[in-house]
Design goal:
Layout lengths: L1 H26 L7 H4 L6 E6 L2 E6 H12 L6 H19 L4 E3 L10 H8 L1 H16 L7
Parallel strand pairs: 1-3
Antiparallel strand pairs: 1-2
């Protein structure tokens, strides 16, 4: 009787875990870094030229791309967040009531992922960029 109960319990666990295991096998592990920023729509955009192509980019995603050029990774997370707020405040001030601003009207250097990897190396990029993105995500919409 005890052996049957063990088999039934094991089968129940397998049946409960099977959908999760199949989903993980098909999709793999998803990384949150950057995916959340790309989905943000504040209604305020920066018109930016990347590789000769003009693109509208949400202000929050833009801030994540300029933040590392303003403050280095040796700074603590609170400094990164404070700087994200300062950058956002300046951008919104320059935008006024407009919903789009051209990158050339801003004083920041936007770096693509490739440019940061070239600057820091891939390992350092993978370690540091999530901190910058978290600084932006944790302060979305905050200005002073």
């Amino acid at each position: 009787m005890g052996e049957k109960l063990t088999i039934v319990a094991a089968m129940a666990v397998i049946m409960i875990m099977m959908p999760y295991l199949i989903t993980m096998a098909i999709n793999g592990k998803k990384e949150d870094s950057g995916l959340q920023l790309k989905n943000i729509n504040t209604g305020r955009d920066v018109l930016i030229n990347i590789n000769g192509k003009n693109e509208l980019m949400d202000v929050e995603e833009y801030i994540a791309g300029v933040l590392p050029s303003v403050v280095g990774p040796e700074n603590n997370d609170e400094m990164l967040a404070a700087q994200a707020v300062a950058i956002r405040t300046q951008i919104y001030y320059k935008m006024g009531t407009e919903t789009v601003i051209r990158e050339e009207n801003l004083t920041y250097d936007f770096y693509t992922k490739e440019k940061y990897i070239e600057k820091w190396g891939k390992t350092s990029y993978n370690e540091n960029m999530p901190r910058y993105e978290n600084a932006v995500m944790s302060t979305i919409g905050k200005k002073f």
